[in-house]
Each structure stands twice: as structure tokens, then as C-alpha cells.
Amino acid sequence: MRVLTVLGITALLLFTFACGGEKSESNKEVAAKSNVVVVEVTGNDLMQFNVKTIEVLAGSKVKVNFSHIGKMESTVMGHNFIILKPGVDIVQFATAAMTAKDTDYIPADKEGDIIAHTKLLGGGQSTSIEFDAPAVGTYKFLCSFPGHYAMMQGDFIVK
Ligand code: CO
């Protein structure tokens, strides 16, 4: 799975660079200079992310393109993408998030536990976030919609 994820990201980057002539060259230069890693994450109506492991290199700028590829409303099958700081208990975080409906299930008193997060999406919606990769290590990511973290979680690895 780990290898597949890396190949997936590499393939995506290659695909991006392969599109168009001179434009792709300039994109490539920009990407090389700023070390931008683009990660495609989806959530579906079966309460699943498309990835269990995401790997990036330390020093990268990370762009996560997050899409809900299902059809269900955010009120019944909402998805967000949250990366937690090291040492944060995912169960405690998710439990606190359950009652934070008004803030897209981001608990106001747990903002300090978060490295990066998206807004909450319903079916057909998408969003993007950008952030600097944190220090080398393994971080948990999850969807904090009530009950989803059990299935919708994985490792964000910085190498
Ligand atoms: Co979800």
C-alpha cells in the first residue's frame, strides 16, 4: 500500500508535467523550485478515503485536493480531511468533534491538535488546502464526521 501511494503521487506529478508543451515545462520548474507535492484524496458514500497512507518528503509544500465523489449530503455523509499533531489521541479528538457540527466537526478547543484540515464536504463537492509538510514522522489523518474515523483514517508520513 505504501509503495502504491508513492507511485500514485509520482504518476500524478508525471501526468501533470506531461500535459501541454511549454506550459508543462514551466509548471515543472515551479514545482521543482518550491517542492510542491500534490496529493489527491477522495471520500465516497461508503465512508472510505481512497488512500490509507500518504507519503511526502520533509521540506515539501503539500497541496491536498480533496473531493467527495459520492452523492450524499454533508449532513448524512459529510467528509473532511484532518491531519493531527503527533501524540494527539484520535479517539479523544473524534469524540470531541462529534458535538462540533456548527464548525464542520472541528472542535474549537482542539484547533491546537491540528496540523491542517479541510472544510466539510457533501457529495460532488471539492476543496483544496496547502500547508508546509511538518517534521519527519508519522501523523494520523481522519474524517471527523461522527462515527467516520473508525474507517476513515490513515497515516500521513513525512520522510
Ligand atoms: Co466522513
Description of the structure:
By secondary structure, the protein is an alpha/beta fold. 26% of the residues lie in helices and 29% in strands. The longest helix has 17 residues, at 2-18. It is globular.
Could you name the key traits of this structure?
159 residues, alpha/beta, 5-stranded mixed sheet, 4 helices, 8 strands, 26% helix, globular, binds cobalt (II) ion
Helix content: 25-40%
> Would you identify the regions where 5 or more consecutive residues have pLDDT less than 50?
1-32
Mean of residue pLDDT? 86
Number of strands: 8
From N to C, what is the helix and strand string? Answer: HHEEEHEHEEEE
Into which percentage range does the β-strand content fall? Answer: 25-35%
Q: Tally the helices.
A: 4
Cofactors, ions and other ligands in the entry: cobalt (II) ion
**End-to-end separation:** 16 Å
Gyration radius, rounded: 16 Å
Q: Please, what is the oligomeric state?
A: single chain
Strand order of the largest sheet: 2-8-7-4-5
Give a short overview.
The protein has 159 residues and is α/β, with parallel strands linked by helices. The chain contains four helices and eight strands; from the N terminus they run ααβββαβαββββ.
SSE layout and pairings?
Blueprint: H1 2-18, H2 22-34, E1 36-43, E2 53-56, E3 61-68, H3 74-77, E4 82-84, H4 90-97, E5 114-117, E6 126-132, E7 137-142, E8 153-158
Parallel strand pairs: 1-3, 2-8
Antiparallel strand pairs: 3-6, 4-5, 4-7, 7-8
The protein binds cobalt (II) ion (CO).
Residues 43, 78-79, 143, 145, 148, 152 line the site of cobalt (II) ion.
